[in-house]
Amino acid sequence: MTLQQFMNEAISPWMRCDGPDSDIVLSSRIRLARNFAHAAYPIIAEKEELGKIKEFIKKEYEHQSFQEYEDFQFVPMRDLSATEKRVLVEKHLISPHLAKHADTAASLISKSEQVSVMVNEEDHIRIQLYFPGFQLNKALEKAFEFDDWLEEKINYAYDETRGYLTSCPTNVGTGMRASVMMHLPALTITQQINRMIPAINQLGLVVRGIYGEGSEAVGNVFQISNQITLGKSEEDIVQDLQSVVGQLIEQERTARNKLMEQSSTRLEDRIYRSYGVLEYSRIIESTEAAKCLSNVRLGIDLGMIKDVSKSILNELMVLTQPGFLQQYAKESLTPKKRDVLRATLIRERLQLEKK
């Protein structure tokens, strides 16, 4: 996998696979924050020290493979344009925070894009590992194995009492963020999600938008993750998250069934109106596109729409983002031109699907 392929392919290879409960859970992610012992953390470190860490990662891990995660590409942020960095953010391969620190930051990305390591973000290393569907336990198991592989050459900052030491106190302990990306259109339509979010927060979990902290839940996609990293084991954190996500899955399915039973005509109209907008629009904003894609995906999951695959909708959710549109056009676009190109790409992709 080359950098150009990372940029040109809207959907990561691992996203083409279905996982458990994939009609509702889009992905499961484990993120581990780690730091080098005896080195200043990125928030206070000098550029020279961070440069040494970056070069160490490049020397030791570029083009290496671990188990099924092959041919890691080392991508320095300083070598990327603003559009290219935005594309990597839209694919969840790097964070917006990493994209802002071009001089000292980099990423290490596996060929499948299932594993990415952010270098010199808030911490020296932030490991991200994704699985399709609801597979938190498997993701945790693989993240542990990958973490152990890195630790063979890296002396982590670790305290016997506090656990892994991190730049932000909220990550001290396990240094882990476990999260799932969920598509919850029925709970949103019925407005049940509004009372559920405060209840979820009270359980020590947090509900965010598709791009994490500070982002909105565009297209009825919500990210549910743990807040507590200290005082609980990784397994306990994952178990707590799994329990809540399991209840959300059940509630979403119940809400979908009730909509089908009580408002089937209205729901069908909502879904096919959205399909019509996507199929015939000549200009469409990103928020409207995300809403319509969400409705069409619901239609696919409910068996109403049979000639469009979910993988195409996953692809369009990324392909129609501002960074990807400009990468596709090979130029910087005004918002109006992006809206026109977005509508064109959606129409063309849906037409290809029908052939």
UniProtKB/TrEMBL annotation:
Family statement: Belongs to the ATP:guanido phosphotransferase family.
A single Pfam family it belongs to is: ATP-gua_Ptrans
Reactions catalysed, semicolon-separated, are: L-arginyl-[protein] + ATP = N(omega)-phospho-L-arginyl-[protein] + ADP + H(+)
The residues covered by the Phosphagen kinase C-terminal domain are 24-255
The UniProt keyword set, sorted, is: Allosteric enzyme, ATP-binding, Kinase, Nucleotide-binding, Transferase
- The answer, when asked if Nucleotide-binding is one of the entry's keywords, is yes
What top-tier enzyme class does this entry carry? transferase
- Entry function: Catalyzes the specific phosphorylation of arginine residues in a large number of proteins. Is part of the bacterial stress response system. Protein arginine phosphorylation has a physiologically important role and is involved in the regulation of many critical cellular processes, such as protein homeostasis, motility, competence, and stringent and stress responses, by regulating gene expression and protein activity.
GO BP terms in the entry = phosphocreatine biosynthetic process
Regulation of catalytic or functional activity? Appears to be allosterically activated by the binding of pArg-containing polypeptides to the pArg-binding pocket localized in the C-terminal domain of McsB.
One GO CC annotation, please? extracellular space
Question: Which InterPro entries does the entry link to?
Answer: Arg_Kinase, ATP-guanido_PTrfase, ATP-guanido_PTrfase_AS, ATP-guanido_PTrfase_cat, Gln_synth/guanido_kin_cat_dom
Q: What is the lineage of its organism?
A: Bacteria, Bacillati, Bacillota, Bacilli, Bacillales
The enzyme's E.C. designation: 2.7.14.1
**What name goes with this protein?**
Protein-arginine kinase
Name the source's superkingdom: Bacteria
Query: Motif RDXXRA motif of the pArg binding pocket involved in allosteric regulation located where?
Result: 338-343
Q: Which residues bind ATP?
A: 27-31, 92, 126, 177-181, 208-213
Matching PANTHER family: ARGININE KINASE 1-RELATED, ARGININE OR CREATINE KINASE
List the HAMAP family hit by this protein, alphabetically. Prot_Arg_kinase
Query: What are the GO MF terms of this UniProt record?
Result: ATP binding; creatine kinase activity; protein arginine kinase activity
